[in-house]
Each structure stands twice: as C-alpha cells, then as structure tokens.
Specification:
Length: 294
C-alpha cells in the first residue's frame, strides 16, 4: 500500500503546472491533499475517472480545503467520511470556528483481507506570531492532540484482534521538530511561526522517532523514523529567492501513524522536482510504502 501526502497550494494551479503528469507516473494507492482551495466537483473533474476523490472545503473562501483520494484500480477504497474534528472538542466555544473548517478529513479505508484503517488528511494552521492567527493555530493544536490520543487509544484497544483499528494522519503540519527539519534553524528558532518551542512540544508529545514506537507516545513520525538522523529530507521551499536551488527548505509534511501501522512502513520517498520552474507546488509529495496488511 502506497500513500502520498502533498500540499497542492491550490489544486487547479497544481494541475496547470503539471500535477496531472506527475500523477500519471505515480503508483500511489491513496492520496491526502491539503490547500485544495476548490469545490468537490471541480476537484473530481480534474482527477477524472481514475480517482475517487473527496474534498472538505474551508468555509472561508480561498483558504485551506483538504481531500482524500483512492485510485479506482487499487485494492483500497474510501468508506465513511468524517469532516472535521469531533464536535465535543469544540463544546466550550460553541462549535467549530470557520477558520478550522477544511483542515481535518477522516475516512475509513477498506482494503484486502477485510482490512480497515483510519486515514486523515490534515492541514494545520500556518500561524503568524503576535496575531490572532497564532492563537488559532495553538487552539487547533490542542484539539488535534486530543483526537490523536483518541485514535491511539482505539488502535491500542484493537491490537492483536482480527480487526485492528490503526490510524494514519498525513498532511502539512506547518511545524518543524528539530534543527534537522529546517536548513536555517538558528535565525528562525523561537522567532518564526512553525519553529517555536511551544508548537514543537505538541508534535513531540504525539510522535516517536522509531518505527517500533514508544510506550509514552501515541504515534510515530514515519518519515523521520525511515530517514534516520540526517538533515531533512525537506518538503517545503519558499518560492522566493534561491531557496529551492540551495535546498534551504523545511520538513513540514508528515506521515504520523499508530505503532501497529508504522511498524509496516517499508520505505519513504520525497519527490523533488528537477528544477525550480518544474514545480507544481511549493511542497513536495511525501510517499510511504506500507506492507499492510502484512
């Protein structure tokens, strides 16, 4: 099973810049997309009949939007969908704010041998220091953390059973974890949103760095576990200047899996376009191959 996550930075623009050509040469079974910024019908039309694509748009026009897709000729299909985090996580504020819409899409994925697992496409807030946007980011991180714990508890309860409930959360988290995840750590650490200790603490509370997981943590950072102790691989580069040519990037895009699924991860690949002007988005697709079901 191959799963790819990519922030397309506007799916219509991505297709104009070559995303469709990339898809034709890719063999992923499942897709998680962020910053779709298009209607469900427009998105499905772009993908055509080869893909079954489901979009949850943001209620704020021109922002966010997440999607899940399954290749129709693969062994995997999308089942029941859940848009957004559970409503009870917003009880104290009277419901989900519009800025949180189009950022979390869950689906039950059905595959061979009766296998079912939960797949999430997640787009966490980018934030902006000393503004309301950063407050929205932190509030969303708290709620995502609660959902991660819920999914982890469900996976643990099903461990060893005939119907384990593993979970895979993929997407643009808009946060690096360590100096290995950003080329220019020192000038950004605790000075730029996405590189703040307060933000990093959330990810460190969610993810271990080894495929076997940790008894203390609910999930595994699959990309880091497979890459090991090395710089990058980066998944986002600014459009400005020579950031791409100099590989001055950030690792913002993740596969976060419950340990039972993470342990089946075989390999990871970050697609890097051959040249600046060959990019169809400012992010790189991150693909992981899982031997699942084993």
């Amino acid at each position: 099973m191959k799963v790819t996550t990519v922030n397309v930075n506007g799916v219509r623009a991505a297709f104009r810049k070559g995303f469709g050509d990339w898809l034709e040469n890719d063999d992923s079974d499942l897709l998680c997309l962020q910053e779709v910024r298009a209607t469900p019908q427009d998105t499905q039309d772009l993908f055509g009949p080869a893909w079954d694509v489901h979009v949850w748009p943001c209620r704020v026009k021109g922002r966010a939007g997440v999607a899940l897709g399954a290749r129709r000729d693969s062994d995997w299909e999308i089942g029941q969908l859940t848009e957004g985090l559970p409503p009870d996580l917003y009880a104290e504020v009277g419901g989900e704010p519009d800025v949180d819409s189009g950022r979390w899409l869950e689906a039950a994925i059905h595959g061979p041998q009766g296998t079912t697992f939960t797949l999430v496409s997640a787009y966490l807030h980018s934030g902006e220091l000393r503004t309301e946007k950063q407050e929205q980011k932190i509030a969303f991180l708290h709620r995502v953390g609660e959902r991660v714990q819920q999914l982890s508890a469900r996976a643990m309860a099903g461990a060893g059973s005939d119907t384990p409930q593993e979970a895979l959360i993929c997407g643009d988290f808009n946060i690096v974890r360590t100096a290995r995840d950003i080329k220019n750590w020192k000038p950004n650490h605790n000075k730029t949103s996405g590189v703040m200790d307060e933000e990093i603490a959330f990810l460190d509370a969610w993810m271990a760095d080894t495929l076997s997981g940790s008894k203390r943590l609910p999930c595994v950072d699959v990309g880091r576990a497979l890459a090991g102790d090395t710089d990058g691989p980066y998944t986002w580069w600014s459009w400005r200047g020579k950031a791409y040519d100099n590989n001055a990037g950030w690792r913002l895009d993740y596969h976060m899996a419950t340990p039972g699924l993470a342990g089946q991860a075989q390999s990871a690949a970050v697609y890097r376009a051959p040249a600046y002007d060959a990019r169809f988005t400012d992010h790189a697709p991150v693909t992981v191959a899982y031997d699942f079901p084993a």
